[in-house]
Amino acid sequence: MENLIALLVAAPLLGAVVLLCGGRRLDRVGHWLGTALAGASFVVAVVLFTDMLGRSADDRALHQKLFSWIPVEGFQADVAFQLDQLSMTFVLLITSVGTLIHIYSIGYMEHDERRRRFFGYLNLFVAAMLILVIADNYLLLYVGWEGVGLASYLLIGFWQHKPSAATAAKKAFLVNRVGDMGLSIAIMLMFTTFGTFAFGPVLEATGETSEGKLTAIGLMLLLAACGKSAQVPLQSWLGDAMEGPTPVSALIHAATMVTAGVYLIVRSGAIFNGAPDAQLVVVVVGAVTLLFGAIVGCAKDDIKKALAGSTMSQIGYMILAAGLGPIGYVFAIMHLVTHGFFKAGLFLGAGSVMHGMNDEVDMRRYGGLRKYMPVTFVTFGLGYLAIIGFPGLSGFFSKDKIIEAAFAKGGTEGWILGAVTLLGAAITAFYMTRVMLMTFFGEKRWQPDAEGHDPHPHESPKSMTIPMIVLAFGSVFAGGFFSIGDRFLHWLEPVTGHSHGDAPVSATTVTAATMVVLVIGVAVAWVMYGRKAVPAVAPRGSLLTRAARRDLLQDDFNHVVLVRGGEHLTRSLVYVDHSLVDGVVNGTAASMGGLSGRLRKLQNGYARTYAVSMFGGTAVLIAATLLMRAV
Amino acid sequence: MNPVNYLYLAALLFTIGAAGVLIRRNAIVVFMCVELMLNACNLAFVTFSRMHGNLDGQIIAFFTMVVAAAEVVVGLAIIVSLFRSRHSASVDDASLMKL
């Protein structure tokens, strides 16, 4: 069985190589080939999954060592895979959502002449993401980590003829680089601390390592997670990443890649368990991002950017849960999976709307679309109900668990975190209702585009609606399926561990409170956007609204602090270099030059002068000899 | 007679020769002063030979004479060719190495 693991990666990797190297002759079959290979990977995943279910809980992890990558004395790096319950969860999510989005892209990218290349990149992404989650050591994980970064860069900038897309791709790449720096430092620290970076030995050895070292490693891992998962302070790239084609936003920037940070933290759980300070920082980052993303999501008129804010916020939930330690690991992953379904569904819905509306993204130009796009409306609506946590749907179960876990953290901390997660739930309900109302309800507000074509909203082709329907099923049922009888908890517990904590409030109270804030959020949104007509031009808005439209000034902050700061730093360094370093060097040279100019005068060319110096020298030598002898 | 007196004489001759080398500009005179210094050395060697009662000093004096003869040949040849090219026997005129 374990020999199949490599096949998971091999299929999409083969697809990427063939599609990217194959040239134009594959243009007509490229999309089918790419989809088939992603599907093949899914089939292998299902086979491995059924096999894994057949074994007892302690015996489920599989190992496969392909080859020794760097076999050096004292430094062993293997290309080896490990498939345990945690990896399996990710593999299923990636391959299933990945395959659905491949199918969706067949329709969505139909008129794009570079469709083959697009599928090559998608396959590359799937392969890299699979390497990331099934690697059995941090170094191979790093390979996958960089691979998804590359694929993300290529896909955000897929429409590179648009300067905004090219810039967004570069921005994503650069911001991710900061996070990757953290991961590489963490790996180096691990090597110096533990002498290895394979998951097994590292995570077992955390017990006898000093807390300071674990905190350092933990913080560096968190930096990496912040970069990849768009958490404060490295969140600025995600909104701009929406410049990529919508399937990319659904797959990479909602369902899978941006959750890699959560995977990293949960996988390194043993390190964080031993470093409470690092855990606290994780929780704070999660809580801040949760509110940050939600507030940004409330103000955006671009449907994809509103959803991007929501993604950031939901990943904030996951990071927060992961920072809670064993109370939260399982729920972080559970929310990750349900979020993968409903957010991918929402993005695909948004893509379907754009497809029918001549690529218009401004929600103020939508309105009343439910009559024109019934399938999109229903699937998007189910995703909407799932994300706001409507009772019985996926988000209800997974988000509720995180809120409970936040309270169960205990003490003042628990109350603060609980309050933040509840507030986040209210804002989530508000902005998602806003998106829903502005897009599908109210009067139609669309206008002719720049060339005078009226949009003709229409339902998307089957290749696009079927994936949306499948994801809608996931959005509805996944949460319930996982939660009833604590199935997901029992499944993951052997890997991540679990503790209940002591909640100061009962689960029922939490659920009731969540329902109350949910109703408040929806009601406020309805009052603002449902009861009266939405203006086609955005009103000026309050100071907070305007700040939120500018992503809460994240770019201005980065510009002032990092860009300007960097410029000042380099300028002062150049100044020091010119005045001090060059000064010392040039000063030495000049003084040597001056000295030798003066010494040169001694060589006047007169034989007598040389004779004097010879006589003088000899006289001094003799005098010295005599003097020494006398002494 | 006390042999030390010969050493005084040798020192006197050497000093005269050295002063001549340093002060005079005429190449021939400088050359002669060099010879004077060599002969002062010879005198000292011979005196020491006599004082110590062995012949080492006298042998060295012979060597010095041979070297001095060879030096005269080369040195005079240089002075003559210098005079031919520059129409002067002043050593200060031959300061070509000066920058």
UniProtKB/TrEMBL annotation, chain B:
It is found in: Cell membrane; Membrane. Its EC number is 7.1.1.-. GO terms for molecular function: NADH dehydrogenase (quinone) (non-electrogenic) activity. Gene3D superfamilies: 1.10.287.3510. It catalyses: a quinone + NADH + 5 H(+)(in) = a quinol + NAD(+) + 4 H(+)(out). Belongs to the complex I subunit 4L family. NDH-1 is composed of 14 different subunits. Subunits NuoA, H, J, K, L, M, N constitute the membrane sector of the complex. This is NADH-quinone oxidoreductase subunit K. The lineage of its organism: Bacteria, Bacillati, Actinomycetota, Actinomycetes, Kitasatosporales.
